[in-house]
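Need a sequence for this fold. Nothing fancy.
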């Protein structure tokens, strides 16, 4: 009888430990999605004290790679999957499941001291491929444009490549930085720099430019009139389940989407 009670107690303790382990979630990837992930994780853990969430940002490509090798549970991404990523997942017997958690705009940014207010997609392309080198060619001062870009592991860079550069390559003297925060910081420190960031970063000490005459905003992202709008994702191996599903559902909930808006991004409908 005593042995049976001890075994029952041991089972209960192990069960509790297993439940707690299941509430440990590791999140990595896109620095664009990072503010959303950090704030929702903070609120979620306050609401559910048994949950333990770890959040970091290193770029969409790095996050998806970490998800596939099992290092993290959720990969934040500011782009959709590449064919190779889909193929690799299939070869290993699983799918990478996208949960859309917000809408974003990629915003060209300059110093508030820069008089330029608007650039066309064609002008942006020719600045980033090196054909336009001076601000006076696009209505600014007679000063060389300091071009700042995200690095190659960034989903934001990949969307910029697709929507702005097309088949052209980014100019060889562009400064390639690893996060939205670094781009915003570098642009704010240089009156003649041009960079691009997610909508939530286009504030404070930098000025967002209109693209083709349209300003990035909630309404222009939703109605499609802003040319550089895109969806933001949380990817999982297969459809989310258990603790991961509870967190993703929270991010997509009314409370989670209010956090998305507070962080300067666009809530999903």
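Here you go.
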């Amino acid at each position: 009888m005593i042995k049976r009670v001890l075994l029952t107690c041991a089972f209960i303790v192990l069960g509790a430990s297993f439940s707690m382990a299941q509430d440990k979630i590791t999140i990595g990837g896109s620095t664009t999605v990072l503010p959303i992930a950090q704030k929702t994780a903070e609120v979620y853990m306050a609401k559910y004290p048994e949950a333990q969430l770890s959040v970091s940002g290193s770029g969409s490509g790095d996050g998806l790679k970490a998800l596939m090798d099992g290092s993290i549970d959720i990969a934040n991404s500011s782009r959709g999957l590449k064919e190779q990523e889909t193929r690799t997942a299939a070869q290993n017997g699983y799918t990478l499941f996208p949960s859309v958690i917000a809408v974003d705009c990629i915003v060209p940014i300059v110093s508030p001291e820069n008089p330029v207010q608007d650039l066309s997609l064609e002008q942006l392309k020719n600045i980033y491929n090196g054909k336009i080198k001076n601000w006076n060619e696009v209505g600014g001062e007679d000063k060389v444009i300091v071009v700042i870009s995200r690095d190659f592991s960034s989903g934001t860079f990949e969307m910029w490549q697709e929507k702005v550069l097309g088949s052209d390559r980014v100019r060889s003297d562009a400064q390639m930085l690893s996060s939205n925060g670094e781009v915003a910081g570098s642009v704010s420190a240089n009156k003649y720099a041009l960079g691009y960031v997610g909508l939530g970063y286009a504030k404070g000490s930098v000025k967002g430019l209109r693209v083709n005459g349209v300003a990035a905003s909630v309404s222009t992202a939703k109605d499609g009139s802003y040319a550089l709008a895109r969806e933001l994702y949380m990817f999982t191996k297969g459809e989310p389940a258990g603790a991961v599903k509870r967190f993703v559902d929270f991010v997509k909930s009314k409370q989670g989407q209010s956090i998305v808006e507070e962080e300067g991004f666009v809530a999903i409908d």
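For context: The chain has two domains: 2-102+232-262, 104-223.
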